[in-house]
Design a protein that fits this description.
The chain has one domain. The protein has 147 residues and is mostly helical. The protein is built from five helices and no strands. Helix content is 82%, strand content 0%. It is elongated and about 55 Å long.
């Protein structure tokens, strides 16, 4: 199995990077949609936002998150890729877990919009929009610099 993982390493890494890019696009865009949704204040346009948010989450973000995890775990299992005695894999792991939590939090906020129970403001969603950026910086620096 380890020989196969080593042979497929360039493909696994490429698919992991593509998955991460797709997931990050959604993590950046969904909170922005929430800002527009809250600030629109027009009940007639709410169903349009709800459709956009649902499709983004289900058609792009969820599959991208799942494939990111699958290809990431395959990379972890590839011999010689991760040295768990260093800090960087732990920093990345914690950041990816936080990013996954953020994804789930966004999913719950979408359900709140559908149920009409959203209590957050556009400003609060703007601030939450910075969470994936901070996590992305930590992940990229951890993987590239390997501190």
């Amino acid at each position: 199995m380890s020989d196969l993982l080593s042979t497929l390493y360039p493909w696994t890494k490429s698919l992991h990077i593509l998955s991460v890019i797709s997931w990050m696009a959604g993590l950046f865009y969904l909170p922005r949609l929430f800002v527009y949704h809250v600030e629109a204040g027009n009940q007639a346009i709410n169903p349009t936002f709800e459709i956009m948010e649902r499709r983004l989450l289900r058609a792009i973000m969820n599959p991208a998150m799942i494939s990111t995890w699958i290809f990431g775990l395959l990379l972890v299992m590839t011999p010689g890729i991760v040295d768990w005695s260093m800090i960087w894999p732990w920093a990345k792991t914690i950041s990816v877990l936080l990013m996954t939590w953020f994804h789930m939090w966004l999913s719950a906020r979408r359900k709140g919009f559908v149920a009409g129970t959203n209590t957050l403001t556009g400003r609060q969603y703007r601030m939450m929009n910075e969470v994936p950026t901070v996590l992305l910086v930590i992940i990229v620096l951890a993987v590239v610099v390997k501190f």
